Amino acid sequence: MSSNTTSSTANKKNIPKDEWEQRLAKVKVNKQDLNQLVMNYLVVEGYKDAAEQFSLESGLAPTVDLQSIQERMDIRHAIQSGDVDTAIDLVNDLNPEILDTNPHLFFHLQQQRLIELIRSKSFEEALEFASEEMAPRGEEHPEFLEELERTMALLAFQDSIDSPVQDLLLPSQRQKTASELNAAILMSQSQEKDPKLPSLIRMLDWSQRQLDERMIYPRIQDWVKADLIVTHENGMEEDISMSI
User: Fold this and answer.
1) What DSSP state is assigned to residue 233?
2) Nearest-angstrom CA–CA distance, 32 and 115
3) Which of 112, 179, 198, 123 is nearest to 156 (CA)?
4) Other C-beta atoms lying within 10 Å of the C-beta of residue 229
5) Predicted structure pTM score
6) Contact indicator for 61, 220 with CB cutoff of 8 Å
């Protein structure tokens, strides 16, 4: 450890775990507020069955008609299964204005369809689709051209592992497209397009980083487990169990 690092650490206030636990114990969080956060996340992300079960367990009514969640789930499932045509049909059945008024979203759906054609090695169909359906949109919207060229680059590699754009074939690409479409549907229904919980976690992460500059304290390292970690002066880390 460098002398600068040692000096920086020595200048920070050190809050022991007992004091930190006492401080946390004084923070009162309304259970109803927590339940609403959870319900908001389940509804926005489209977890219909989980929302129904949580409603029964918490006594909190969903903020929307659960049937609308099912419709969004069906559309998300179609995208994540690679069936873009079905997803587009379902969206148009739900509200055709969603795609008519959002050229960026429609382009990304067409891009995903092109990716699925390339994934299935339907190269001739992919070239025809790109030429007839996507190239004209690129001419109308030049901002689409870079994404189209990047997608077409998949055709240059027989083995996707060697492709510099192999990320387009990962499940995360389908997830990205599905999330964008889900957000557009929610906005068309005058609902929140993003759940509140992830924003709160990002805010908490920012707050921890601000505290890191001033003090040493039990902090959350893993946001999935949410365990508090105590870092000792020798650099060793210790999990602590909270019973608040």
Assistant:
1) T
2) 44
3) 123
4) 16
5) 0.75
6) no
CA 205 to chain centre: 16
Backbone angles phi, psi at 47, to 5 degrees: -90, 80
Which among 89, 41, 92 has a CA at the least distance from the CA of 69? 41
Per-residue pLDDT tens over the stretch 100-133: 999 999 999 999 999 999 999 999 999 999 999 9
pLDDT band at 18 (very low <50, low <70, confident <90, very high): confident
Phi/psi at 96 (nearest 5 deg)?
-65, -20
What's the CA gap between 146 and 149, in Å, rounded? 5
Rounded to an integer, what is the distance from CA 107 to the centroid of its chain? 20
The helix or strand, by DSSP H or E, that contains position 14, with its residue range, turns out to be strand 13-14
Report in angstroms the alpha-carbon separations of 154 from 90, 105, 122, 146, 164: 28, 21, 12, 13, 8
Residues 6+ apart with CB under 8 A from 2: none
Encoded tokens for 118: 């390339």
- Look at the block and give the residue holding tokens 């996507």: 134
206 CA to centre of own chain: 18
Distance CA 14, CA 219 (A): 12
Q: CB–CB of 84/76 below 8 Å?
A: no
> How many beta carbons lie within 10 A of that of residue 61, not counting itself?
8
Compute CA distances 170 → 31, 82, 203, whole Å.
38, 11, 29
